[in-house]
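Hey, can you fold this one?
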Amino acid sequence: MTRLLFVCMGNICRSPTVEAVARVEFAKAGLAIEVASAGTEAYHVGDGADPRSIALAEAHGYPMAAHRARQVADADFEAFDHLLVMDEVNLRALLRRTPTAARERVALFLPFAGLAERELPDPYYGGPAEFRRALDLARDGVSALARRFGGA
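Sure. Predicted structure:
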């Protein structure tokens, strides 16, 4: 089974949204892919996802209310086949602590999925349009990943 970890800064907006979308869409595609998410920082460890992210994701059929934020752990570098990061800032932060043997498994999410867009922008300080953009990019990226991994 392929295991994917989606990573952003605090694990309350982008990465849990991508995780929720991936869980639903991979299941629909018949893909045996395990997904999780984490943050590079410990700001929100134990907190639920941002209520704006939850409301939007769940309105589109992606359950997210049970999410609890966590920080990337050393064990994640062994446990996951790919650690897919939402933006360059967090990519650099993650690579600083990535063991040499795991570096080839760390990448930006959208380019890894095959999309031209490099970053999934952080909606945290934005409004509804920014959260909608994050959900749209999450769905585009997950759809591309499903094709990459041979989904129906």
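The helical segments are 14-28, 51-59, 76-79, 88-97, 109-113, 128-148. Let me know if you want another pass with a different chain boundary.
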